Amino acid sequence: MIVLPHLLVGSAVGQSLQQDLLRAATSPDTPVATTSADAASPFQQLATQAANAYRAGDKVRAIEGFDQAAAEAFRVGASGAAFEYAIAAAEITRSVKDQAGAAERFRRAALSAVRDPRSAAAHEAACVATGAAFAASGSPTSAQLDAYQAVLDEHQTLWPTAPSATGMRRRAIELLAARRDAARLLNQTSAEQAQAEPWLVALRVQAHGQVLASAATPAEHTARLAAATEELQPLVLGTSRRWPDAWTPLQRQIAIVLGRGHLARDGDGPDYARRVLSVAVRSDPPPQQAWLREALPLLATATLAVGRAGEAHALLVESGVEPAEADRALSGLAERLAAAAPDHRAAAVEALAERLGWRASARSRAAPAAAEEKGSPLAVARRALVEAADADSRRDALEAWTALERRSTRSSDLWREARRARLRLLIDLKEVDQARKLLRLTQLLAAEGDADWRAVLTALEHETVSTAAQADGRR
Q: Domain of life of the organism in this record (predicted)?
């Protein structure tokens, strides 16, 4: 089971529905029935009784009454009245915080009157309420997530031209990403769509990495790697086919995806991985610690795989590993590489990363000594992050970064480094709820046009989801 990210919860949907569709049934200005009971149809009588209950504050009876009125109106063919009564019941249900019940009623109303101009908004409200209900549960089941995916897909199928279709499509795609359904995400989106929708690029990068890791055969891996390289390499090199002057977090993540993919390829695969990762590691701006933790073991493995043992050793030493430890680590790595087929090199990378732990992230490029005094708050915080190898040291690092963030200007480079470090440490400490709350706030503060920063936050969001899923699996 996984925990849904913030994007599945809430929107300003249903405002007009609440204003327009509750008006006739529940407004104090609506006559309570000035004609005899015989003059009113059964569904009108039921609606009047429900409205009276609502005015009296009895929302349970009001919901039941509008449900009955909607059913009776639908039975006799009064589809317009049935729709309005169903929406009234749904809105009152939502007002008492029963998101699941509201979702069911909104959806039923929308499907009963697909041609009604208001049906798309009603179904959008059903989608939002469904997501809110599952998110509130903490850990929805796979079956519940399937149901949520189905209602999002249903919206796009029945109302493809509605203003809400684009938003529901994004929810559906982000849900696929959260569920790590990478193959389906790639099939339902395209590189061309990603060019027009920047938020989609990071999700497709992540999905390419996941399908490469799950390839069952060398032939399947080769085909998937070709597709990934064709799409992702131009995002790094651009039309000029040159390395970027300043690497973005997304481009560095692409370097890891392609580096890992090509390392598992025979022939010049390891050299491709070495070249792209080497440039990404050494280019400006200095890479973040979290990225280096993943990139350096991969780069060292690729460098050793092409026979550059001295270069691999220098890389580890520069990264803060003691020379003797680097010798031992590379000796063990060489033995694993000699015994492994190309498509099994990933295991060697993981073994090296596990052996080096956090020490491989201490590369001086990430925290240049010349740029800061050793005792400065930034130096202390960076050193604490590098040396955080257990829960206690990570909590110390978290405290240092939190203090640094409070003293920095919001949205500045330093503030972002501190906020990212806090999120990273909360994830590593398995404090998923705290990480999720901080991430939601950070995403709300992020500027819509700041694609690089939002891509970083999206990647952290998926790590949070994955960590929560792993925790659930161990229970």
A: Bacteria
pLDDT of amino acid 424: 82
**CA 256 to CA 117: how far, in whole Å?**
48
| Alpha carbons 1 and 469: distance in angstroms, whole number | 6
Q: Which amino acid is at 106?
A: F
Both tokens assigned to 44? 């009108």
The count of C-alpha atoms lying within 13 angstroms of the C-alpha of 306, restricted to the half-sphere facing its C-beta, is 21
Token pair of 21 as six digits: 């569709």
112 CB-near residues (< 8 Å, 6+ apart): 74, 79, 82, 83, 86
Residue 252 and residue 366 in contact, taking contact as beta carbons nearer than 8 Å = no
Contact in structure between 265 and 237 (CB atoms under 8 Å): no
Mean pLDDT in runs of 10 for the chain (475 residues)?
29 42 45 46 92 93 94 90 93 91 94 91 92 76 88 95 92 90 95 90 94 91 96 93 92 96 89 94 88 88 88 82 83 78 72 58 35 54 60 81 83 83 85 87 73 73 68 56
The HSE-up count of residue 283 (CA atoms within 13 Å, CB side) is 18
CA distance 108 to 87: 9
**Residue 357: predicted pLDDT:** 57
- Whether residue 259 contacts residue 277, with contact meaning beta carbons closer than 8 Å, is answered with yes
pLDDT of residue 297: 87
For residues 271 and 265, give the distance between their C-alpha atoms in angstroms, rounded to a whole number: 10
H helices within 179-268, ranges in order? 182-188, 191-196, 198-213, 218-237, 249-263
DSSP E strands, 236-358: none
**Please, are residues 181 and 156 in contact by the beta-carbon 8 Å criterion?**
no
Kindly list the structural domains of the chain, giving each domain's residue range(s) and its CATH number in brackets, ordered by start.
Answer: 6-179 (1.25.40.10), 212-366 (no CATH), 374-468 (1.25.40)
Q: In sequence order, which residues have a C-beta less than 8 Å from that of residue 277 and are 6 or more positions away? A: 255, 256, 259, 295, 298, 299, 302
Residue reference for tokens 């919901």: 63
The number of beta carbons lying within 10 Å of the beta carbon of residue 280 is: 25
The pTM assigned to this predicted structure is 0.65
